[in-house]
User: Fold these one by one.
Assistant:
Number 1:
Amino acid sequence: MECVVQGIIETQHVEALEILLQGLCGVQRERLRVHELTLKSVPNLGVVSSEVRLLCDLDQQPEPTWTVKHVGGAMRGAGADQISVMVRTMIESKVSKNALRMFYSLGYKLDHELLKVGFAFHFQRAAQISVSVSSVNKMPKIHAIDEAVPVTPGMQIVVVTAPATPENYGEVAAAVSSFCEFLAPLVHLSKPFISTGVVPTAAAAAASLMSDGGGTTL
Amino acid sequence: MPVKWVLYWQPNQGSTVSTQILNEAAQCAESISGVKEGRWKATLNYYKPLLRDQSSTHHPDSLPRDFLGISLPDHPAKYYFIIRSQRIVVEADASIQIIMEKLQSYKSKVSLHFDGFQYHLGDFRLRVGRVVPVHSESIRGIVMEVEYLPISSMEKARKVMEEFVEIWHEALSKRSLSGKFVNVELNFGEFGLADNYTPQHTGVQYAIVMAHMIATVQPAVRG
């Protein structure tokens, strides 16, 4: 399980967001360059049609590493409505580099692929929180990551996630929510698929952060 | 990691496999100065595709009829998939099993346990175990792992492995058993594996050994 919120930010304010995050997290940012392939089952395979993601972390040394990720449905009901983050099932498994070939053999086809480029912070703040800020790129030709172009030029996506369990998701959700409040001047974070647009005050907040290097508490 | 060979018991024509063979093999290991180190266990699953419309003409012939998943005692956090028809072996975290369940596209139809004792003989580790379906006691076969601890190159270890197996056959022949342990010659290169031994080599060996065992070994009515 994981708690997740996301939002969008104009690329021109990303540097300010990075300064703010650096101050809040107290850890070094990590580069993010992930090739994400979404696969879907062929028509007659499976009780229901299914989808699985393969993530290739291109920056890992000595060679890129692969992860299979399955994202399940979001928690529903009155309890879920009361919290401001999405709680959903999510399972990951590191795999050897021939996992794509395996899924092709098992009857999965490439649905779409993206290249996410940006940075991420991983830190402990009442929960194990990860924040990623990235531009989402699409490929003009299959697997042509060197020719990737932004899906939404001038706009980047911010995703905050934290692993949770059925026992502790309430506390984790609260930790994620309270962390998101610190970012509110620059980016508005909400449950995925509920777009809230960019923050109108972002330009002013960014200008303030850039001028004093993030030293002032907002 | 050390080179390992996986052998299986092939009974003579007309005879069956039983726990008696396992006991004899255990005694044989001790007779050649094997020191018992305790039990070992591995689990293997056969996954088969779940098709929405069984009668549909859209049966994807390109799908494998089944593939194997195996967890190995030396690498409990990992899981190995082998698609024999496609010559694919994949290493994954153990959590991949939950992902497969969630996808509902393939289902584990048959699960088998391998369990038995392991022995230490100088630079060798020997494991002998029975093959039994989960939730059953009826023995389906016997496997033996021979591991040569100092060497991780398949090619460099070949001679010493062959010699060990020869000594083993000789020791076992004194017990007049109706059958023998068989080593299956394998081309690991077909699976994209190099000479340096990895757990994926073990996964492939189990997949091939099981195919041979199913094709040649008649289970006893009662194990």
Number 2:
Amino acid sequence: MIPVAFSYARPDSLESALALLAEHGEDATVLAGGHSLLPVMKLRLAAPEVVIDIGRLPELRYIRLDGDEVAIGAGTRHRDLEASDVLGAEAPLLAAVARTVGDPQVRHRGTIGGSLAHADPASDLPAAVLTLGGTVVLRGPRGERQVPATGFYTGMFSTVKEPDELIVEIRVPRTGSSGWAYEKFTRRANDWAIVGVAVVDGRVGLVNMGASPLRASTTEAALADGASIEEAAALADQGTDPTSDLAATAEYRRHLARVLTRRALTTAAG
Amino acid sequence: MTTSMNTTVKVGITVNGTETTADVEPRLLLAHYLRDVIGLKATNVGCDTTSCGACTVLVDGESVKSCTVLAVQADGQSVTTMEGLSPNSTNLHPVAAAFRAEHGLQCGFCTPGMVMATVGLLKENPKPTEREVREGLEGNLCRCTGYHNIVRAVLAASGQDPDAGQTTSVEADAGRSPAGGVESAPGFSTGSGA
Amino acid sequence: MSIMGTRVVRTEDPVFLSRGATYTDDLTDERLNGALHLTLVRSPLAHARITAVDVEAAREAPGVVAVFAGADIDLAPTLLFAGANPGMVRPWLATDKVRFVGEPVAAVLTEQPYQGQDAADLVEIDYDPLPAVVDPRAALTDEVLLFEEVGTNLAGGFGHDQEFDEHFFDGCEVVVTRDIVNQRLAASPLEGRAAAAVWGEDGRVTLWASTQNPQSARDEIASWLGIDAGLIHLIAPDVGGGFGAKIGADPEFALVVWLAQRLGRAVRWTETRSENLTGMLQGRAQLQTITIGGNRDGDVLAYRLDVLADAGAYPRLGVFLPFFTRQMAPGVYDIPKVESRARTVVTTTTSTGAYRGAGRPEATAAIERAMDLFAAEIGKDPAQVRRRNVVPPDKFPFETKGGAVYDSGEYAKAIDRVLEGAGYAELRAEQARRRERGDVVQLGIGVSAYVEITGGGAFSEDASVEVHADGSVTVLTGTSPHGQGHATAWAMLTSDRLGIPIEKITVKHGDTDLIPRGAGTMGSRSLQTGGVAVHQAAGELVELAKQRAADLLEAAVDDLEVADGAVSVRGTDTNVTLAQLADREQLKVDTVFDSGAPTFPFGAHVAVVEVDIESGKAVVDRIVTLDDAGPIVNPLLAEGQRHGGIAQGISQALLEEVVYDADGNPLTATFADYAFPSAAELPSFTLLDMATPTTLNPLGAKGIGEAGTIGATPAVQSAVIDAVSHLGVRHIDMPTSPLRVWEAINAARGERGAGSDSSEGAQQ
């Protein structure tokens, strides 16, 4: 299967990309690694008139320390995340979560900015950034703004990013090397998560438990109040709204969220 | 760099060391560029959903699924297909030779992608364990071999003895719970830094 | 040392691993230059009346040469399988009605492949939806008919007009009955269906197609098109897997031939995976009711199997396969009373046909599940209950109550050896420890014993062996492989007789002009028919060469021997090479081998799974199999067949299922949704060997191709259930997905909590 025909541009700078985006507005789609976009274009579920390829902008591909945070260029590939010594030492949850995305070929192409912009509730990285308490840096014709991940996702495949904005950077706090875990439940290794649970520093993030990545806020509050892992994990599905599909019923997803949260918290607690 | 809007674009891609160039539709997939534009038919397309990996090639040395890369995205880059590995059929690349020696192929349709994924895997991890081989090839589906002999071929290609490297119980693998253990449940992708 | 029985690496592989194999879509034959590309517009609805088809916009799209709707095709709708209800005919493109999602409705022909989907999107079809019928039990009521004029959804049956004997289980101390599902599977060869056709000036058509048996495909297409089979030159190039789903021809192949003639141009068609998962024949799809009775000592006294099979929308081979299921119903067991019946109905789904095992895995899964349920009911070890009831070796040939005559077997020995190889006693001890500790990860052990029928579809096969003056050899075979390695194995069989190295032997197959007769590769038949025919042809060529050499060498035929490619006088240096003989006169033998009867390979499998009882997820930890298919020509190839089958068996037990929603929409029409395993979900396998020859052919060979799916599927299903049996679970339908396992545990706990007996399904 092949996409509907489109016009293509590969700007050679971020400024030029933003100008093109401003010019074409909602007719345009941004292509980075292409591993969320091209599959839906091949199935003709998306048919943009203009594709703006930012996949090769060197200024979007970096991982560096910046004060109390790690700054990651939006064009950084999953493979870069999983192999990064900086992340391994400073925010290892993100590297470990990246390692569970898709398969090696997908990780060689897919980007963290693309994953967050696509905002698939079954995706691993959006929930990981949310759990880390990260920030999404957006740039557009009105300048640059920083949006906390907690306010970035607005629903299924939707975010606060305006059509003329680009994600340029993701910032996550330096967490140090301990106190984290990721539990991803799948039938096959490279399937999407049926449910995933990320834990770091007492924060708990949920994959595929609603229209957007979620924080298990009731569990987090219980932990802060001194509840045991067992007690807190039993609350993990509160405030969630999981769907039913071929792989799981909503009830089963709730059960998995509780079990995986307990396991992740136990692992993270060492 | 292409900054203007175009319905056809000129691409130049080095394929197996040879410069190739063509005017193509932007929507042309790299897999079809290889097969239909320059006539290299080893790379196969086995699905529509980036699932099967039959179309795996190397782009600048990294394994990618060429059904999910536009030809224009590979403009100016270097692509290696299975045809580029071995000078001819009597002088096989070590990975290809290992697939033959271990009977790691039957119908052959997944084979070009499987071989290229293996070349990419061994570049990143020259001495993988059996579990690392299995997870390293998770993006490549084979319906014929049950993977048993593919795993052997990859271990052999990495210079390891497949009889020693291959276990017949997942219990013995690194990262899996030992028999009787309850530390981690089977089949989970687990990362932790406790 | 004889080459027979040695691990010869494949002669096919150097090309496959350098420039790649040549599948139908890879062909660069100059007759296909400028070929048109066929894109089919397929129905998005499972059951609907077509009220309008508008192809005008599509005709105007770039690159479009022609667009055809059903009314444009002057071929009568055809019954695709002769044994089915004769009114259930399929049109080449749907006209008044569609009967499954994926049914072709219009054909678009374009200069370039990318233009096809663009134009196809412009074809406008108005549908008036009708109720879908997805569940065969609903189809059986005939409330919604697929073929109104036929008046029934019943496509066929075996023994279905007889009533079951109500006293059948009289005298049994224990009777257990249960409804089980042998779910629908998609064969999913990595290469989908493909065809290319061009008509020549001689009035014949050359058709390249991805098929397991070109000669049968040629004959089918000729009959569908109403032309002489001699007008079709069918070539199967390299074929990227088949697993039964590429037996014979598909209607699309005939359409490609018809379109190429109508348009006077070459036409090519290569389906997408989404088309493949709705258009290619699917397998299994049986609902079964099993009832088993016996005494508390463990003797099975009576077994009943009731099959309701799903033919899909247009009956194909799937209508026939329950015949094999009934025939093999008793499995390896000597059961005094066996009765069965099978009914097949049409539903608004993809048509069904053969998938690796084709009717026999369904029989084995049923009897093995019955044995487990019976063993659980009487509280005995399931392996020992099996062993107690198998046919003993001194009873062969053994005529079963299913109507088969088993040629040879050592069933108890097979079970003993696989239990020993797996360390069965230690596994049970480990299981007990985990249960005692209340581990989250429980161990399950599944045992299956099986016998299957191979070579049962066609007993005869052609072969030809010719030695050329340059010392090379050409072998022609009627079997047409798609990954099995015939070019290597048939060369070994020839080399063994002629003493000519396999490098000099070329095996040709899959070309109906070169090889007009052949039954093809399916049903684990190739070695025991096609391979034996080659062995026989080479043997006859030896005799022919001796006779010719006798004159030349002035020696008696009885004093001559053939070795190293030459005929020599025994004990002397006097010889003449086969090449020299060929230089004088063509040295070629054509022969036919007819086995006259099928063979019955057998074996036993042990599966060990770990089940996380909190999440319900099962992971296969070990597979130990003993598969006895008689003497092995090339262990490397035979093991490859076993590995592939085992993986498919595990996959049926754990992962795979074609799913439709209530409206008949397929929910598993991509490889993202239709789950079969990657390397990461499987262990390596432990294979044990045994070789009990058949007397039906000179090699003693039986078939090995389907052993894995037949043996492994019930072993793995049984292991998953066994892992949670201590929680009160007696049965989980396949695939035993995490969700199903979790729900089964919950249901069992609920029943226990309510104080009810856990032996659900038990009678008396």
